[in-house]
């Protein structure tokens, strides 16, 4: 895909180093060498997985020089560094991405071909590190790619879950969860750094003592201690030498003398302790946007945050920087409230472990943190019961009380004694039991608070965080999300990449605004023809995947209408399925109906405990079963649920879409990022005025976007005036028929009870207003079908969508974070060979 650029020409001479050279002959030799010396195999005995590992190590060797150099330069220069704290990093497979960013995809492909191997097959062997649930974790991964590509010194800090997000199977139409054993065959991308292990305390009590100056200090006597072991993964930027670090922490039992003494003669007791400690980082909580108040989850959050902050302090001490400069050395970003305990932990470290006084410690803390909010959904706002919190983190609770007391004093000073306001702002929720409000802690402890789309940031200021906005408006800002074009165009859609590059060169890969330049071809018949051809080939590819994984045969010439994302009521997959049923009924009522043939593709996981979401999956599969086998329907409509949606499985999907479903209830989807991946790959969007849909529509032009549905204001007004979903059902025959069929067992072999909970919910409460949005959605889909028949118009719209998506590169988002929040500059990295000019 790209030319080699950094060094190395394959001259056929033996001048290249086996660990760094990127000529085809060198790559082949290095690959076979790794097969022998790392996997201990010769080709006759090697499995596909052995070959994958040998290739991964060959690529890793080429990363290492950049990684080591990057670290050396950051250390030498004492560079200001971004620390991105996130409970989730949904990285996706590393191999393909590293080949792209190294600029050696083509050479490696050729090397493998010459060895009679298929690079695609080897890429497919990589177990994906699924250390995230969905959008939030994937955003962190896109941001690491952009940070490295923009040469910004960065450490990503998180948890090395032994089991990531579960694998999804579909059995009899239901979701079944299977453990994700991603580390089973080893992970060639990480290096353990046990020499930088840290201890993390839990539970116990605190006591006062006096320091050397005779001032009161607090000592924490914990109930247990757990070791954190860092595992580092290099994150290479696109065609730069910067390789930053993703540092994930694994919990282990400490083997201290005390511990052994305590367990003397009790071997089983000692092993039991070990098991309990290591449980901490066993598994990712699979809930997306609902918090669950579980002790282990709070332990995970505190564990990785404490490891990260202690690691930063270690780096400062090693670089001989005074701790008063903490906020100058590090800009720490909180990815939602999952790491918000960092505010109290940094205070504790500075006060208790480094003997600082409150005022300077608090100033440093506030200047250090930025907080990104990712949701307005009340069920996602984390709050921990005081009982749990105090038993696990007694010292942090004391610190939070002190922060709160001082903060509320300031509030009283500014607004007078307004008890209502004080109650709303307090870090402690006392409405119904007592809780620590993590978003409040994050707001008070940060110098900047941002939402992730224009609408979301506005709503934050007007609703969820209104009181905080009134108190410190200058802290609030918006940074609209973005996604990396390296993974989501170059790697996922090589054909489109080549077409674009052949027209305008490859600068757009680093500067996505440049892709605008294909606009001049939007009506060019030759270009349109190629555009269409590529889309068709990408659809054929997905058709093969669907046949292979589901047994359903779909027509690549039908309109591919795709909704892939976590299953959630607010995302309204069930509104989409109501459209499927409506189309089905229209064909059944008029068997000769000349409708635009469609393939409806769904994919996504439901949280294992989210009953209605799982029922929606069952409904999709039940409708699919009836529709797909009905001879009256034929190729005019197919419904498919692709199991086990993850980063790897999603990469072929975006390039194959004609229509992107972004149909959340207005005001509920903070941003959305799948919407960007689709539009960049030339899909048109059908969507509500929600999250980033609004900004995508503004960018691509209203005439190139299918808009429908209630606005956020409409939603609020309708709720206030009394929303009666059943009225819509009664008055709309198409809607009534669809709901009645679901209720009557039409899709469930006559079983009337199966979908009753869902039907009742829609008719009685309909919290996400599907009934109100149904007809506008159906009408808009009719528009889509009409437009699709005008091939030239559709192609023009598709090209313009890709051309106008420049704003939605994560590079743009990261530049904004750097300027507005982090105040951090690029630090270019040169390789020794480049410096001496002999490379
Ligand atoms: F609830 N998001 C997510 F805000 O994927 F924490 N998981 C989550 O737990 C949360 C948010 C949380 C998503 C938003 O739903 C999506 O709209 C947004 O695009 C994405 O985060 C990245 O900002």
Keywords for this entry:
3 domains, disordered N terminus, Rossmann fold, 839 residues, ten-stranded mixed beta sheet, glycosyltransferase, alpha/beta, binds ligand GPW, 34 helices
Spans of at least 5 consecutive residues with low confidence: 1-12
Please state roughly what percent of the residues sit in beta strands, choosing from under 5%, 5-15%, 15-25%, 25-35%, 35-45% or over 45%.
Answer: 5-15%
> How many strands?
25
> What is the helix fraction of residues, given as a range?
40-55%
Number of structurally distinct domains: 3
* Overall 3D form: globular
- CATH fold-type name of the largest domain: Rossmann fold
Number of helices: 34
Judged by helices, strands and strand pairing, the structural class is alpha/beta
Cα(first) to Cα(last) distance is 22 Å
CATH superfamily of the largest domain: Glycogen Phosphorylase B
Bound molecules: ligand GPW
Give the overall pLDDT as a whole number.
Answer: 95
Largest sheet at a glance?
10 strands, mixed
**Which architecture name of the largest domain does CATH use?**
3-Layer(aba) Sandwich
Describe the structure.
It is built from 34 helices and 25 strands. Helix 2 packs across helix 3 and helix 13 packs across helix 14. It folds into three domains: 111 residues, no CATH class; 368 residues, Rossmann fold, CATH 3.40.50; 269 residues, Rossmann fold (3-Layer(aba) Sandwich). Strand 16 and strand 17 form a beta hairpin. The strands form six sheets. Strands 1, 4, 7, 8, 11, 12, 13, 14, 18 and 19 form a ten-stranded mixed beta sheet that branches. The site of ligand GPW has 19 residues, from helix 6.
């Amino acid at each position: 895909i790209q030319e080699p650029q950094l060094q190395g020409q394959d001259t056929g001479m033996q001048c290249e180093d086996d660990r760094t050279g990127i000529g085809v002959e060198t790559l082949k030799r290095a690959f076979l060498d790794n097969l022998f010396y790392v996997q201990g195999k010769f080709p006759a005995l090697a499995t596909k997985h052995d070959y994958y590992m040998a290739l991964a190590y060959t690529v890793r060797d080429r990363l290492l020089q950049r990684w080591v150099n990057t670290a050396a330069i950051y250390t030498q220069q004492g560079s200001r560094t971004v620390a991105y704290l996130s409970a989730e990093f949904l990285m996706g497979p590393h191999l393909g991405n590293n080949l792209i960013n190294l600029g050696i995809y083509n050479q490696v492909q050729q090397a493998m071909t010459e060895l009679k191997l298929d690079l695609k097959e080897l890429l497919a062997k990589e177990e994906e590190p699924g250390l995230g649930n969905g959008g939030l974790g994937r955003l962190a991964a896109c941001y690491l790619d952009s940070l490295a590509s923009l040469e910004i010194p960065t450490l990503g800090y998180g948890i090395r879950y032994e089991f990531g997000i579960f694998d999804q199977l579909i059995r009899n139409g239901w979701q079944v969860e299977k453990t994700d054993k991603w580390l089973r065959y080893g992970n060639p991308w990480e290096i353990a750094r046990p020499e930088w292990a840290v201890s993390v305390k839990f539970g116990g009590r605190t006591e006062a003592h006096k320091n050397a100056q005779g001032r009161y200090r607090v000592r924490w006597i914990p109930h247990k201690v757990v070791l954190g072991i860092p595992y580092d993964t290099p994150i290479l930027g696109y065609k730069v030498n910067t390789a930053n670090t993703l540092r994930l922490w694994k919990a282990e039992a400490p083997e201290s003398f005390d511990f052994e003494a305590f367990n003397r003669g009790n071997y089983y007791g000692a092993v039991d302790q070990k098991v309990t400690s290591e449980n901490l980082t066993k598994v990712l909580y699979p809930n997306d946007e609902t918090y669950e108040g579980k002790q282990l989850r709070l332990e995970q959050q505190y564990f990785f945050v404490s490891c990260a902050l202690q690691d930063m302090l270690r780096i400062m001490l090693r670089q001989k920087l005074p701790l008063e400069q903490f906020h100058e050395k590090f800009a720490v970003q909180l990815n939602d409230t999952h790491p918000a305990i960092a505010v109290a932990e940094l205070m504790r470290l500075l006060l208790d472990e480094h003997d600082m006084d409150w005022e300077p410690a608090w100033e440093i803390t506030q200047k250090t943190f930025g907080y990104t909010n990712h949701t307005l959904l009340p069920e996602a706002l984390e709050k921990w019961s005081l009982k749990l919190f105090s038993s696990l983190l007694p010292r942090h609770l004391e610190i939070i009380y002190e922060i709160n007391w001082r903060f509320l004093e300031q509030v009283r000073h500014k607004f007078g004694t307004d008890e209502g306001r004080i109650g709303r702002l307090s870090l402690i929720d006392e409405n119904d039991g007592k809780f620590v409000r993590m978003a409040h802690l994050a707001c008070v402890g940060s110098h900047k608070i941002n939402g992730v789309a224009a609408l979301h940031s506005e709503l934050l200021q007007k609703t969820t965080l209104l009181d905080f906005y009134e108190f410190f408006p200058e802290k609030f800002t918006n940074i609209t999300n973005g996604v990396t074009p390296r993974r989501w165009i170059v790697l996922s859609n090589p054909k489109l990449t080549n077409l674009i590059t052949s027209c305008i060169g490859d600068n757009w890969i680093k500067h996505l605004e440049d892709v605008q330049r294909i606009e001049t071809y939007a009506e060019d018949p030759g270009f349109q023809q190629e555009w269409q051809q590529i889309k068709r080939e990408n659809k054929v590819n997905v058709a093969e995947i669907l046949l292979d994984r589901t047994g359903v045969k779909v027509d690549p010439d039908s309109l591919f209408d795709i909704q892939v994302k976590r299953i959630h009521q607010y995302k309204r997959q069930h509104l989409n399925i109501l459209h499927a049923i409506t189309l089905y009924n229209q064909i059944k009522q008029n068997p000769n109906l000349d409708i635009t043939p469609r393939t409806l593709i769904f994919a996504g996981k439901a949280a294992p405990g989210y009953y209605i979401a799982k029922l929606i999956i069952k409904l999709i599969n039940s409708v699919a079963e009836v529709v797909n086998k009905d001879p009256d329907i034929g190729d005019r409509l197919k419904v498919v649920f692709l199991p086990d949606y993850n980063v790897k499985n999603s990469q072929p999907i975006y390039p194959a879409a004609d229509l992107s479903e972004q149909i959340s209830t207005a005001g509920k989807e903070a941003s959305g990022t799948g919407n960007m991946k689709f539009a960049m790959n030339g899909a048109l969007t059908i969507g509500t005025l929600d999250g980033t849909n609004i900004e995508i529509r503004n960018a691509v032009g209203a005439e190139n976007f299918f808009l429908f549905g209630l606005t956020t204001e409409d939603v609020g007004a309708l709720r206030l005036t009394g929303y009666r979903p059943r009225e819509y059902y009664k008055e709309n025959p198409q809607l009534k028929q669809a709901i009645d069929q679901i209720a009557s067992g039409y899709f469930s072999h006559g079983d009337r009870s199966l979908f009753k909970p869902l039907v009742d919910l829609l008719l009685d409460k309909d919290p996400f207003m599907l009934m109100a949005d149904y007809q506008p959605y159906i009408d808009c889909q009719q528009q889509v079908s009409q437009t699709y028949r005008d091939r030239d118009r559709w192609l023009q719209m598709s090209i313009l969508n890709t051309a106008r998506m420049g704003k939605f590169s994560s590079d743009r988002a990261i530049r904004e974070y750097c300027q507005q929040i982090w105040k951090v500059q690029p630090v270019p990295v040169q390789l020794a060979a480049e410096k001496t000019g002999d490379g």
